[in-house]
UniProtKB/TrEMBL annotation:
Enzyme class at the top of the EC tree: oxidoreductase
GO CC aspect terms: cytosol
Segments forming domain Catalase core: 62-451
Gene3D superfamilies: 1.20.1370.20, 3.40.50.880, Catalase core domain
Function noted in UniProt: Decomposes hydrogen peroxide into water and oxygen; serves to protect cells from the toxic effects of hydrogen peroxide.
Catalytic activity: 2 H2O2 = O2 + 2 H2O
Assigned protein family: Belongs to the catalase family. HPII subfamily.
Name recorded for this polypeptide: Catalase
Superkingdom, taxonomy of origin: Bacteria
UniProt key word Iron: yes
Residues annotated to bind heme: R106, R146, F195, R393, Y397, R404
Catalytic residues identified in the record: H109, N182
Amino acid sequence: MCSSPRRVAPGDVIRSRIRSSPMPPARKPDQSAPRTVSPTGVGYDGPKDGRDPRGQAGDKLTTPNGVRLPDTDHSLKAGPRGPVLLEDFHLREKIMHFDHERIPERVVHARGAGAHGVFTANGAGASVTRAAVLAEKGLETPVFVRFSTVLGSRGSADTVRDTRGFATKFYTKEGTWDLVGNNMPVFFIQDAIKFPDIIHAGKPHPDREIPQAQSAHDTFWDFVTLHTEATHHTIWNMSDRGIPRSYRTMEGFGVHTFRLVNEKRETVLVKFHWKPKLGVHSLTWEEAQIAAGVDPDFHRRDLYDAIENGAFPEWELGIQVFPDTPEETFEGIDLLDPTKIVPEELAPVQPIGTLVLNANPTNFFAETEQVAFHTGHLVPGIEGTNDPLLQGRNFSYLDTQLTRLAGPNFTQIPINRPHAPVNDNTRDGFHQQAVHTGQAPYTPNSVDAGVPFPSDWSEGGYVQVPRHVEGEVGRTAPASFDDHFSQPALFYKSLTSVEQQHVIDAYTFELGKCYEQAIKERALTVLARIDADLCAQVATGLGLPVPKKIKVAKSRSESPALRQIRPTPFPIEGRIVGVVAGPGADLAGIATLRKALEAEGALLRVIAPHGGQLVKGTTVEIVERTFATGRSIEFDAIVVADGAPKDGDFRALVMLQEAFRHLKAVGAWGDGVAVLKTAGIDPTAPGVLTGKKANAKLAAATVAALGMHRAWDRTPLVRASMV
Ligand code: HDE
């Protein structure tokens, strides 16, 4: 028999370890004792925003079955040195659960970030729809929004060139409505049947599984040049829209045309638009590339931090309204073609409500990962149309959730639960959470007193507006779907020259990463139909001849609404200014600058040679970034303080040079100007802000520069340094 001395029980070790460490943080409000909640809402007394208030625990650690545990750090062994016993039910249960923690990632849009918020209707929608969420003035509807990239896997970088998803779940009192949109108003294809093909082409090559989250490869360009309906979406991707500065600075679009129905059952056709309060802003390509390495969570972090700091992102929801004619066209534009926009100059976007995102998720998996959107989640007053892309989506979203969320009961997951009463007759299935009562889950019945009863239109039932349908069966498309080039041409000519240059650079980069000569040559024949100069410049970049005898497509007159560079300033909430400082820095000046920025909702972060604090008299500044941890990409402007290290640590100089190259405001006060000069920055260049002191004038100039997003007039200077 083993006679080893009595060992300290593992539980004692844990208790003493906790006692010797600093005070544990206070419990979060949602970490009250677990409660049992019926998934269909019976007995639900938590917040009404769809979040289950269950935190992870009360006081005592238990197994999933509620058995209290003395120790979760040591396997049950025969003696201290082994072997582990099969009898250890806790070990097996803990590892089993861990083994199954991952669920399949979304087949597209795998990488995302979400937030809770509220949508408030302004009442203007009442004339066109009976849906209370859009019609009832002042009605506040809770929402959950998930933003995403399309091509990358869950762990891929945020700032890649790609389309962004903008999916909104409205928990309306009439049932759940999902508006599953993107940050671009058109799509690559006109028929859902091609979706597997475009995604196979965009995803990594099947042999080596590279490149990750990129469109700059042969198969993508092969597809979009063979299926030229993709030309319009592709040029949006090659524009600055493909690399947003933030989810907060993106427009959103429903893409398809929808049908709205009012109380009198009159219909109109509409397109949905989300307009960001902060304006539409993007990264520069180099900035996006650096961020993908330095901070792959750039957009996720930005969204989380902004909400945490009270800079709640805001969008206006607007609709373009078209008469519901049998042709389903407007000014000659086919409203069922998802590769077409209707220029805002032809049909203005009319605001019908405001979205504010005001709370971060409590648990990423439970909310952002498990949220399940579906284009078929509609409420009375909002209908789809015959757009063949939308019709295919109506099948796909339900189908994909079956695999991803392992069964048909995903509307019972807290984030997906409707906030309207649910009285359906669905039963059983994997992960059934409800304990249904009654004996007759069918309608009508005479056993359970006949309930639940159907509702007609007057009682708020979802009754489709009658529509006439006829036609010959066939795999066909309308002739108007053959126009693939007039709108890409319209888009390109509507941009400012700076934005056009970015488009040229993007095509040159992406096609330059392709290996197949034939694909590059075919791509040039597509560009030749959009714009001759665009084609010529990309051809030069690729070292290929311009294709001959191809005419540019005819297009409408320019649509200035398509530009994102505008002459007027935008709000600067959540923008970040880095101040390069050091032990001798003018802390009073930093305080002045901070006050002015915070008054506009922007933030100031001190960057110094090393961490800790900067102290001068009674003034103390916390160092938030060091020369080692900071990089230009996380700042919208960088200013050098008087008294910052003058010799120019190369890391600080690189920060300044990058910011200058990315057309951000850079500045300095006092002898900080010398640091700018060491970095090779001309203090008289556009967007370089200098002063003797960090006074109100310098602060106002910084705020104004941030409002313009970038010093666009510096572009020629920066490009002059490129061969
Ligand atoms: Fe999607 N799409 N999609 N899509 N989509 C998915 O559904 C699909 C399309 C969009 O944050 C999947 O739950 C087909 C257009 C967003 O959870 C899947 C077609 C638009 C999201 C699917 C399209 C979108 C998805 C994958 C061609 C903009 C992320 C996981 C007809 C209007 C939602 C999932 C989130 C996700 C299918 C085209 C937007 C496979 C078949 C057009 C924002 O069901």
